[in-house]
Amino acid sequence: MASLKIKYAAMIISSLIAGGLISVTAYHYVNSSEKAVNTEKTEKTASERKVLFWYDPMKPDTKFDKPGKSPFMDMDLIPKYADENGEKSSDGIRIDPTQVQNLGLKTQKVTRGTLNYSQTIPANVSYNEYQFVIVQARSDGFVEKVYPLTIGDHVKKGTPLIDITIPDWVEAQSEFLLLSGTGGTSTQIKGVLERLRLAGMPEEDIQRLRSTRSIQTRFTIKAPIDGVITGFDLRTGMNISKDKVVAQIQGMDPVWISAAVPESIAYLLKDTSQFEISVPAYPDKTFHVEKWNILPSMDQTTRTLQVRLQVTNKDELLKPGMNAWLKLNTQSQEMLLIPSQAVIDTGKEQRVITVDDAGRFVPKRIQVLHESEQQSGIGTGLNEGDTVVVSGLFLIDSEANITGALERMRHPETMPNMSTQPANAHSGH
Question: For the Heavy metal binding domain, which residue ranges apply (predicted)?
């Protein structure tokens, strides 16, 4: 009885094992069949899709008419199918909304406004060359006295510089007195006085001669303007020739401040209110700009123009040679504005990616006039209210290149068949 129970249990266990093996084998068979069918369907679908060309995703601007390895990267070329990216238009491309979201694309409207320029430029202080005088005796003579002055000293108008004796002046005075006392004509007398003026005799000494009618033998040469002595090397007892420089005097109010301004913003400079002057030595001081002008020459190396400002310096705080800062605050005329990061500049052309009403991405060629504070002023190519892409430009630009949108932008009158274009038919960015 026990042996029958054991045989019965063994039969049941054997049946279960056999059934399991059959089930596993059947499962693998069915699963393999389904995979084969799916693979066959996929291959059939792929073979039915039209391939336009093959390309390297790392260099999408180069197209190939056959599959294979990329000559640029160690990777297989990828086919570009005619039905990719959904509906295509002669004016742009469509990109899957999920892909657009993954790329983090951002757009912005084209607006109309002014570019604001706020730029600080290094400058330097120099003498006002309009207030530069050279003092000469204009006749041969002798230095009788040199007043205690030297280079760098401030002088006021009328400050004595040297006392001199000029023989020619003494002789001309004697002639004047002789003619005056013996009935010389007025023409003769005026002629003698004019000769004294031309010989350099100071006007106040001439008037003293006429009023006192006495000969003067010692004359004082005085400073003709307020300023700083920049040249002075006479000594008492020296002979002095008619072409010898007695002193050089340079005015200190106003002074000049010069700066190199980029030629691209020269057209924005209109009035003195656009300029602010500061110097490191007096950071809390402001200085009044009387007038300014742009010098006629340009530095071809730096592409800058020299701007010269005449600045009031009554307290003489501004010293020639000082460093200064010129701050420009100005605005352009009204123009179309877009963020500068939206501009794709290839060196040959400038373009942006716009979004039309149907959601297509359309490349457009533009002309950038000016740029400031991350804003670009546009001359042609866009209209107010257009939408431009400001981020994710590279991938969209590559896609536009692949689908031929860039070529259609450059040659809108033609519609090339992308599948027949040779390799390197289009230039990238």
Answer: 53-80
